[in-house]
Every structure is written in structure tokens, then in C-alpha cells.
Amino acid sequence: MSKSVSYKRHRFPPEIIAHAVWLYFRFPLSLRLVEEMLLERGIVVSYETVRRWALKFGLAYARRLRRRTPSRRDIWHLDEVVVTIAGQKHWLWRAVDQHGYVLDELVQTRRDPKAAKRLLKRLLKKQGCPPRRMITDKLGSYAAARRQIMPAVEHRSHRGLNNRAENSHLPLRRRERVMQSFRSPGGLQRFTSVFSAVRNLFVPPRSRRSALATHLHRLAAMAEWKSAACASA
Known about the structure:
The structure is a single chain. The chain has 233 residues and is α/β, with parallel strands linked by helices. The protein folds into 2 domains: 1-64 and 203-233, no CATH class; 75-171, Ribonuclease H-like superfamily/Ribonuclease H (Nucleotidyltransferase, domain 5, 2-Layer Sandwich), CATH 3.30.420.10. 50% of the residues lie in helices and 15% in strands. The protein is built from 9 helices and 5 strands. Strands 3-2-1-4-5 form a 5-stranded mixed beta sheet, with helices on both faces. β4, α5 and β5 form a beta-alpha-beta unit. The longest helix is centred in the N-terminal third of the chain and has 18 residues, at 47-64. The two termini are 20 Å apart. 29% of the residues are buried. The model has no long low-confidence stretch (mean pLDDT 91).
């Protein structure tokens, strides 16, 4: 785990800051709704303060959350989705594993082999090992990049096989509507980095379907979140 989070010169205690950031990234809430929910608990804070907390502490918390241990038996599902920012099309490239765990996301202006190659390089650096198989849609950029970066990895290209990656875009699409679009590519990159890390932590694996298992998973996730935020309560 990286170095602890500093709350120096902040008048609100870490527990309140961490709770506000958790509300914003965990649920499809606007900044003003988070402000209202805090007010209901007797915490008077403006939505602009919540926004600044999300910008300052979101990435710091995300970096301190434990990541799933990579394996050479993993299957990478890759997909890209268009996001319009200030009237210009950008592409959000996303990779998830066989469990739906988000491995990485990258905002780019292109949808060509160079962009796909950049994503694969980032994935290999972050994961530390190649997957057993890579699954994508019919976009030819993936095949071209795979031949250069990891030619020994099996590649299956079929739209029907890639539902896991395509479905992973849906939570972000819901947030995009609540936020009334993103303001800049950098803002989108920062938001998705934290949003996916929080979602990875709190959404139970598909294998845990009982109510008790889901409840225990969420309790453990909340404990890890508080530890990452250095918030004791």
C-alpha cells in the first residue's frame, strides 16, 4: 500500500471527507445530491467542497486499494466506447478480466492500431504478465496490436463473446448522464480511474450470490475503503 493520505489544513475530519468521496464515486449521485445527503446528517458542506475533495483525494484512495492478483490464466476482454467531450469524439478503451474486474482504462482520440498498442503496453506493464486469451470485437486494431505486443497470446474476435467488456461500460454511461457529460479528456481519465477502482472493490464477484455472502463482501469492502482513506470510523 502507498504512503498514507494527508489531511493537513482540512477542517473536516478524515471520516467525513472519505464518506463524501465514497458517496460520489460509489453511487450515481450529483455533487449537489451528495451535499444534501451530508446535510441530512448535520454536515454543512458545499457541493464545490465535495468536488475539490473528489479531485484531491479520489486518486489517492484508489491507489491505496488492493488490486486483484494477476494470473497467466486470466482472460482479457477489451472494448472501446465513444465519449463526446466539448463536441469532440474521444474513445474510452477498457479492459476487464473474466470476472468483470476492470483492469485498466485509457482515454484516447483515436481508434487505430497505435491506440490499441498503447492500451496493451499499459496492461502488460500494470499486470506484469500476459493473459491466457484476449477477447475483442471485430475491430482490426486489436489484432494488429496483439501481433506486435504479445503474438503468442490467443486472440478471439467475435462480437457475441465480448459482452462482459461491453456491459462494463453501462455503469459509467449512467454516471455520464447524471454528470451531464464530462468536461475534458483528463477529467474523464481521472474520474474513471477512481470510479472503476471503487466499483472493483464494492461489487461482489459473480460467484457470491447469497445475501449473506454479499453482505459480508460489502462489510469487508467498507473496511478496506476506510483503511485506504486512513479513516478510522
